[in-house]
């Protein structure tokens, strides 16, 4: 891994296209474009949304087992849930690569990459944008309630996050029986937020 990089959008596209399988690269482009649309709606920096969306899956080029060893090598903390489901580490490792390989120093962009899979309570706006864009981008078609969530994303992003978390927890509980403490904490925060907004 190189010592220092400076972000260059054209080069970033070239690097990602080489590193990722074509479906994952297309997904990255879709998330980038969706993130820009959400940034327009919520009056956030279009440039930051574009970069975070483009790079959010930059570590998906590594097999799950290798993600564990790479994280250990650069001293990225790994929790028990991530050891059991190492593909989740692509978010933390992605933020590391975004800084080291793609020249990203902006904290908001790096955090958006870190939290795009499980989120966190009280996310910042860019974190919300990438979390939602990753779920609703145009090629997604398997998730339940997707049409309603897409519409909601442009009217109430916090409610959209809650709906995404609710559906994801339902799916994970059925498929794996375990959702992880961090994901559950995010869900509980946004569930409470929705209940409070109704009162």
Describe the protein's topology.
Elements lengths: L8 H11 L2 H20 L4 H10 L8 H10 L6 H5 L5 H11 L6 H8 L10 H12 L9 H8 L3 H19 L5 H18 L1
Helix pairs in contact: 2-3, 2-8, 3-7, 3-8, 6-7, 7-8, 8-10, 9-10, 10-11
Structural features, described:
- There is one protein chain.
- The protein has helices spanning 9-19, 22-41, 46-55, 64-73, 80-84, 90-100, 107-114, 125-136, 146-153, 157-175, 181-198.
- The chain has 199 residues and is mostly helical.
- The chain has one domain (9-198): Hypothetical protein af1432 (Orthogonal Bundle).
- Helix content is 66%, strand content 0%.
Radius of gyration based on Cα positions: 16 Å
Strand content: under 5%
What series of H and E elements makes up the topology? HHHHHHHHHHH
- Terminal CA distance reads 51 Å
User: Helical element count?
Assistant: 11
- CATH names the topology as Hypothetical protein af1432
Gross CATH architecture: Orthogonal Bundle
Q: What share of residues is helical?
A: 55-70%
Uncertain residue ranges:
none
The number of distinct β-strands equals 0
What is the domain total for the residues? Answer: 1
- The CATH superfamily label reads Hypothetical protein af1432
* Rounded average pLDDT: 94
Biggest beta-sheet profile = none
Structural class: mainly alpha
Shape descriptor reads globular
What CATH first level would be assigned? Mainly Alpha
Question: Key features?
Answer:
199 residues; mainly alpha; Hypothetical protein af1432; 11 helices; 66% helix; 0% strand
């Amino acid at each position: 891994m190189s010592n220092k990089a400076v972000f260059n959008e054209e080069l970033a596209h070239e690097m990602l296209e080489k590193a990722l399988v074509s479906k994952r690269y297309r997904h990255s482009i879709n998330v980038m474009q969706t993130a820009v649309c959400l940034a327009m709606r919520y009056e956030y920096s279009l440039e930051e949304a574009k970069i975070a969306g483009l790079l959010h899956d930059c570590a998906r080029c590594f097999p799950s087992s290798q993600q564990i060893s790479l994280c250990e090598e650069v001293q990225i903390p790994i929790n028990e849930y991530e050891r059991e489901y190492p593909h989740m580490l692509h978010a933390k490792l992605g933020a590391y690569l975004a800084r080291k390989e793609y020249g990203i120093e902006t904290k908001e962009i790096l955090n958006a990459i870190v939290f795009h899979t499980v989120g966190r309570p009280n996310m910042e706006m860019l974190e919300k944008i990438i979390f939602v864009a990753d779920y609703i981008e145009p090629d997604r078609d398997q998730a339940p309630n997707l049409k309603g969530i897409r519409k909601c994303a442009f009217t109430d992003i916090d409610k959209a996050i809650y709906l995404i978390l609710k559906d994801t927890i339902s799916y994970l509980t059925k498929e794996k029986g375990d959702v992880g403490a961090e994901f559950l904490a995010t869900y509980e925060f946004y569930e409470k937020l929705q209940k409070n907004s109704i009162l």
